[in-house]
Amino acid sequence: MASITLNAVSKTYSNDVQAVDDVSLDIADGELMVLVGPSGCGKTTLMRMISGLERVTAGQIKIGDRDVTMAAPKERDVAMVFQNYALYPHMTVAENIGFPLRLRGVGKREIATKVAAATEILGLSQSESRRPPELSGGQRQRVAMGRAIVREPSVFLMDEPLSNLDAKLRVEMRSEILNIQRRVGVATVYVTHDQTEAMTMGDRVAVLEAGRLLQCDVPQTIYDEPANVTVAAFIGSPAMNLFEGTLGADGTLRIGEETLTLEPATLPSGLRGAGEHPVIFGVRPEDLRVAGEGDSFITGTVELVEALGSDLLVHMDTSARRAQLPEFGGDDELPPEAEVSGRGRFVARLEPRAGVRIGDTLRLTPDPARTHFFDPASGQKTR
Amino acid sequence: MFTRTERYGTLFILLAAAAITLYPIVALISAALESVKANVNSINFWHSLSLSSFKYAWNAGDFSQYMVNTAIMTIGVLVISAIVATVAAYAIVHLRPFGSRLLFFVCVIGFMLPVEVLITPWYYELRSMNLLNGYWALILPQAAQSVAFGIFWMRSAFMAVPESLVEAATLDGASRWHMFRFVLVPSVKPALKTMSALVFLWTWNAFLLPLVVESNPNRYTVTIGLSTFQGAHFANYGALGAGAVLAALPVVLVYLISQRSFISGMFAGSTVG
């Protein structure tokens, strides 16, 4: 059992592609750190560098007190669960799980005992003599976990282990993985592109984009206080509403033809009383409500209503202009005419019986304590 | 859905093709099961069954010795080519030493050259090494060609093994030998079986090389022996048929035993089983 320390780790491929760019991270012993981000953000490459399957171009990796930057994979004492399970197809479940012990020269009796204990924990006792092609996806996943657990490694690495499972099985396996990880108590790096997995599983979440670490914190803080516009847009479903606007010294926020009047006290200190600023204004769907008397509001036409049972998701077309986020290609849910006109769509999560219908003119007001402002140039949060 | 005409038409075509394919085989077996004393030189399906032709071919025709010689030659070629080709293909794919790509292309050229082109240099090389009329003269040239083919075949098989399997074994602590022995070779077993079946087939059936390098009748292989036997018994279809069946039997048996992996290996392009 050990911690993992990454010091300014970078990876540049021979074609000058920078897959990982100066990432520093500390993962405590027993902690489950989730690396999340869009495809191609470098999360898998970073994890493979920890495992030793990818060489480090610059920086240092330590497991416990050992500098393993140049160590071979088998010298790092890490166990990995692969996205496609990577089970040996010609070996039975018992042989797959026991294989690492066999390589270490552990005696047959001891291997049998440890394998039996692992299959008991994982609910695979009845399947020990079966081969991977005869197993379901969930069973294969458990065999992969068993092969990792039985080694009693210092570090667990999991590369999108649930991505090949159906939605229902994913939910089941999520809690199983968490139980196993807590029982084993080993530092774990979990890679996923699914933000639900990231938010529900991680002790902390590290959001990556284009090889850079954008933010690392506990899930709730990542959600409530995104450090930049990329994190804000990626985390949360539906995504945060992000619009280009101009903020005046008096708290007047102009977004398109709409104007919101905000209390100066609720604005970030960097934006109070300092003239007009271009900003990216952000507000989560659940932090919008139907405006009452005296509320400052944004108005628009309801284009889509999604009744989820517990909530009503209302898509309101406004004159506000959505912030263009190159990483995610902008708002591709807008109809073509709205894109040309620059009209943006607010998404609000309302009560299920709000009585909103398509075509209604709606007035929405944000919770002033739950608004976010980002610098359009750097994308960083304005504090 | 097919019409009745289409169904019957298809059936007719398949039966005709089967008849054309099977007729020579049935005729051969029928001739082989005719008494050697009948001494007929025509195809005859209506006769009593007898194994005397087989006994005659086996003993008087020396097929027992020919089969032994051919077995030694074939097993020798098979063992050498299976081991060398598998190890070499593994090295080319996973170790990638300097010059491995060039070596691979040389191998491809090597097995693409027909035996007729190589037979003369082989003969002079074997003569200079004093290996003519011995088993090594039968084994070495064919092993060389089979190794070349085997490297080509097994390289594809090793490349089809998922990289994640190799990485998983690496993280599990596998050395290169462990990786080869416990992970890669079992994964490419179907391709190896197919390669072995093919090498067996064309080695057992080799004619030109044994004809050129063996002048000692005690070292004749089954193909040369059959050719000689045919010359002496051209009018006795029973004896000829028995000799031909004896010559073909091992190949048919090997195919029947390995047909499942043979077909899957051929059509899957030697992918992981």
Question: What would a concise description of this structure say?
Answer:
By secondary structure, chain A is of the alpha+beta class.
Provide structural commentary.
The complex is a heterodimer of chains A (383) and B (273). Chain A is of the alpha+beta class and 383 residues long. Chain A folds into two domains: 4-233, Rossmann fold (3-Layer(aba) Sandwich); 239-374, Nucleic acid-binding proteins (OB fold (Dihydrolipoamide Acetyltransferase, E2P), Beta Barrel), CATH 2.40.50. In chain A, 24% of the residues lie in helices and 31% in strands. Chain A contains nine helices and 21 strands. Chain A has helices spanning 43-51, 93-103, 108-122, 137-149, 167-184, 195-201, 219-224, 229-234, 336-341; strands at residues 4-12, 18-27, 32-36, 58-63, 66-67, 78-81, 155-159, 187-192, 204-209, 212-217, 241-247, 252-255, 258-261, 277-283, 288-290, 298-307, 312-318, 321-322, 344-350, 361-366, 371-374. In chain A, strand 16 (298-307) and strand 17 (312-318) form a beta hairpin. In chain A, helix 2 (93-103) packs across helix 3 and helix 3 (108-122) crosses helix 4. Chain A is elongated and about 75 Å long. With 273 residues, chain B is mainly alpha-helical. Chain B folds into two domains: 4-52, no CATH class; 56-267, Orthogonal Bundle (MetI-like fold), CATH 1.10.3720.10. Chain B has twelve helices and no strands. In chain B, helix 3 (63-95) packs parallel to helix 6, helix 3 packs antiparallel against helix 11 and helix 9 runs antiparallel to helix 12 (237-267). Classes of the chains: A alpha+beta (383), B mainly alpha (273). The interface between A and B is medium-sized, with 22 and 20 residues.
